[in-house]
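Check the record.
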Amino acid sequence: MTEQNLVYFERHGDIGVVIVDNPPVNALSPGVPEGIVKHIDAGAADPAIKAMVVIGAGRSFIAGADIRQFGKGRPPLARKPYDAYEQSSKPIVAAIHGYALGGGLENALACHYRIAVASAKVGLPEVLIGLLPGGGGTQRLPRLIGPKAALDLIVSGRHVPAPEAAELGILDRVVPSDADLKLEAIKFANEISDKRPLRLIRDLVAKLPEGEDIFEAKKKEISRRARNQIAPYNNIKAVQAAVEMQFDDGLKRERELFEELVNSNESKALRYAFFAEREAQKLPDVPKGTPVKTIKTAAVVGAGTMGGGIAMCFADAGIPVQVLEISEEALEKGFERIRNNYEVSVKRGSLEAAEMVKRVALISKATAYEQIAEADVVIEAVFEEMGVKQQVFKEIDRVMKPDALLLTNTSALDIDQIAEVTSRPEKIGGAHFFSPANVMKLLEVVKGAKTTPEVTASTMALGKLISKAPAACGNCDGFLANRSRTPFNSEMVIMLEEGCLPEQVDKVMVEFGYPMGPFAVGDLAGLDIGYAGRKRRAEADPNYRTLPIADKLVEMGRLGQKTGAGWFKYEKGDRTPHPDPIVTDLINLMSKDMGNTPRSFTDEEILKRLLFSSVNEACKILEEKISYRASDVDIMWLYGFGFPRYRGGLMYWADGIGVQQVYNQIAAWHQAYGDRWAPSDLLRRLADKKVSFREAHTLVG
C-alpha cells in the first residue's frame, strides 16, 4: 500500500477529516506517518479549511507503532506527524475509538484536542515490550496530567478506559459508545475552530507534587517485579526529564533512553513474546474460516477452588454461568470462596464494590444436571481421577444440547478416555485452566483424537472471550505444559538427594526472574497433587523414576501452606516460606540412606539442571507433534509457570545459550546420570544441522 491509500482526506464543510486506513488496527507502518503529514500540511495550507479531525477507519484510532519495524534501522522521517500537528495554524481534534496506544496516543497528544467514545481505551504500554514511548509521550503526558499520574500510567503500561482518561485530563470530551464519532468530532471541531491561541501540550509545565519524591518512590514500588529489567527504570528517567528539562531537551533525552532499549536483549525477548502469543492463534490443522460457536451462557461442573475460579472467569467477562454441585454443602462452600475472592479484590481497590455485586449476580447455583442443559459450553472441573471425570461426562452427554461445547479441565488425564464414554467424542476437548483460574492467563486447549476443528477453534475463541492467552496442543500424559514441566519438577527434588536444599533452589529461580521459587509454588498449590500424579505414573510405568524425599514429605502430613508445613514452614496467617530444620534433616538422612555423598551446587548448575531437562522434553513433544511450535511451549511457560517474560520463554532463552551448548551439556549429564538425561532425537538433529529451537518445526515437518 502507498501513503495515498493508507491515509486519505475528506471535506465536511470547512472541516477537514484525515482518515488513517491501515487495517486491521491502523498501526503506524511505513507510509502512515508520511500520509498523515501530507494531509495535515495540505489542510493547514487550504484557506477553506477552518479545523481538522484525525480519525481511524475500521475498528480503531491508531493502535500504536508497527512493532516489527523496531530495531531495523529505518531512516528517520524528514517530518513527523507531531511536527505537523503542532505547526498547524488550525486546530486539530483527535477522534478516538477502539484503541489509542503507544504511538497512537502520542499522535493524539500532539493534537490540540481529543474526543473519544466511551468504549475507547488509551495508554502508553511500551514498557511491556521493553521500551518507552519514543514519540514524545513521556514528555507530553506529564505536562498534561501531572508527572505522578503520568508516571503511574507509563510505568504500568496499562490501558485506560475513556471515562477515566477524561477524569485524568487526557480527553476533552467523551461521547456515548454508539455515537457517530466522526459526526461528533466534526461538531466539536466546529465549536473550537476559532479558539486562539492554539493549545499545545509542549507549552505546559510538569509540576511535581509538593514534598514528594515520586521517582524514588516509584523505583522502590517496582523493585521486586522489575528485577533484572532496565525498561521500567528508563521510563522513570524519561518522565523525570519532563519535569527537569525544557520540552525539546526532554525529547532528546527520551530518544537517548529509547535507543538504549530498542536493541536490548530484554526488549527483543519481550517483542518475541508479544508475537508468540499471536502466533499461538494460528492452528495449521484448523482450516481458515472454520465456524466458531457463539458463547452466551456457560456451566461449570464442580464448585471447588478450580471450578469457582473458572466460574469467575465467565462472570468477569459478563457471561452468565451456572455452577453445578450435587452436594448443597459443597456448593455453598464454593460460593463462599467465590465471594471471598471478590471481596479481597474490592479491599485491594482493584474492583469496585458495585462491579463485584454485578459479577456475583451472574453466577448461579445448580444441583441437577438437567438445570445446565441449555448452556452453550460446560466445563468439567471435578477431582483429577479418571473414573470421576468419566461419570461426569456420561451425565453431561445425557443432558446437554447437541451443539454444546463439552470441555474438561483435566491437567494431565487422557482426553480420549474421557471422550469415549460419551455418544459424541468429537464434541469433547480440553480446556486446562491454571490455578488460580481467575488470575492465571494461560488456557491450554487440548485436542483429542476425535475432537473436531470446530471444537478446537471454538475453545480457542472462548479463551480470548474470557481474557485468557489460549494455546493449543495434542493429547498425551500432561499435555504440553505439565509434561514439559515434569522433568523440571523431578530434577529439583533429585538435586536434594545430592545435597542441594529447597531454599537454595528457590533463591536461584527467584533471582532468574520467577515471582516465586518452585518449592514455594509447590507448597502453595498443595504437595498432595504432585504426589497423586507420581503414584499414577509409577503404576503405569515400572521404570518410573520415583522421588522418595517428596513422597516422604507428603506421607508425614506436610502438604504445604494448607497444613502450615511443606518444603518450608509457615506461621499462622503468613504465607512467607521459612526454611525448616526438619526438612533439612530429612533430606540429609534420606540422601545418606541412598548412599549419596552431599556436595555443593553452583547457581548455574541448579538453573541449567532444571531448565535444560524441560528443554529436552519439549523437543520430544515437538517431535511427536503434540505441539505445533517451540513458541507455543514458550507461551505455556510464560503464562502457566511464571517464566520471566523479559527472557522470552523457555525455548527462546535456550536459543540464547545455543542449541549446540544445550545438547553438549545434556549429553554430558546423560553420561553422568543415566537415561533420564538421554538427548531427544530432535535435539540431536538440531545441534547437527545448527537449527535453532524456534525453527525446530522445520525439521519435524
